[in-house]
Amino acid sequence: MKKGFGNKLASLFNRSVQYDEFFEDLEDLLIEGDLGAAIAMEISDDLREYCRSTKKATETEMLLEIKRMLSQWVAPLSLEITDPPQVFLVLGVNGVGKTTTIAKMAHYYQKKGHGVVMSASDTFRAAAIDQLELHAQRVGCRIVKQKPGSDPGAVVYDAIESARSRKDDLILVDTAGRMHTKANLVRELQKIHKIIEGRLSGGKCRNLLVIDATTGQNGFQQAEMFHEAVGIDGLLLTKYDSASKGGTVVQIGRRLGIPIAFVGVGETYDDLLPFDGDEFFDSLLGIS
Ligand SMILES: Nc1nc2c(ncn2[C@@H]2O[C@H](COP(=O)(O)OP(=O)(O)OP(=O)(O)O)[C@@H](O)[C@H]2O)c(=O)[nH]1
Ligand SMILES: [Mg+2]
Q1: Residue 209: which H helix or E strand, with range?
Q2: Largest CA distance in the chain
Q3: Which residues contact ligand 1 via a Cβ below 6 A?
Q4: What is the pLDDT at residue 191?
Q5: Quick one: how far is CA 119 from the chain centroid?
Q6: Which listed ligand is nearest to 101 at the C-alpha?
Q7: What is the pLDDT of residues 40-99, one digit of tens each?
């Protein structure tokens, strides 16, 4: 999968430009790739130093040096379910791909032989419950739901009880990305999180934040907001197939230390890849 970002990087290497101009263009390209100005400068400075110390570095060597830098800032989140039932509380702003990614994860874990139940805790929109139910039918897993407008925490409570009695391994909780106000959303999520922690012993709930690769820089602000509100354990990067870049998750890894769980690469249930830094950066940087 050769990405637009990788193509641009390749053309930067192919153009014969002055030394300083090359590094300025590289910085611009990294900023365009959503890495943020500070990280772009850090990479550029490191690469200058690398080129100086190695005298004349080849394009491949420079790409591998960029990859080495990026790789040290992001880690994969362990995806094993070792102590069921486990809860994945899926968070994110409106339209980033929460519900779709829940369906993909249900499919992924069921294929591994795990029992999965979905919790329809986006009760803010009536259509959200129907949408999740349709996915549950398609992937063939159970769903716990209540009426639109009901308490999202009560739905999670029911889902946990249901998972316990049916001995399911994984509870996937859909949440609303939008509320009347940001304060409402934060309060709601904190409440849901507290209910889960109260029903299950520590460490059983993973707060997973969905970051849409097409969103750009704003993804970092979203991560800061959710991390401050409930604490984020891992990222789900979506729409990586539509975007030419994935710098936001690198920036989140570098500045907030949050690992990545899965990467969404399309609209079918199989289009979800466990995060693999090696593959991810090869594709991002266009290394073949
Ligand atoms: N191409 C592509 N599209 C995706 C991916 N993940 C999600 N989508 C699409 O993104 C759109 C929004 O997805 P949803 O799952 O409804 O997003 P959401 O976050 O639940 O949205 P709200 O419930 O409205 O907040 C849908 O059209 C999905 O098909 C992906 O990895 N690749
Ligand atoms: Mg949704």
Answers
A1: strand 205-212
A2: 68
A3: 92, 94-100, 122, 128, 177, 238-239, 241-242, 264-267, 271
A4: 94
A5: 20
A6: 1
A7: 999 999 998 998 888 777 888 889 999 999 999 999 999 999 889 999 999 999 999 999
174's CB contacts (< 8 A; 6+ apart) are 90, 98, 99, 102, 118, 119, 120, 121, 122, 128, 132
pLDDT along the chain (288 residues), means of 10: 68 73 89 91 92 83 92 95 93 96 98 98 93 98 96 96 96 88 87 92 88 92 93 97 87 97 97 96 86
User: Tokens 């959303």 label which residue?
Assistant: 185
Instruction: Show me where the domains of the chain are located.
Output: 1-288
Note the CATH architecture for domain 1-288. Answer: 3-Layer(aba) Sandwich (3.40)
For a pocket test of ligand 1, which of 101, 178, 210, 267 has the largest count of ligand atoms closer than 8 A to its C-beta?
267
| Å from CA of 267 to ligand 1 middle | 8
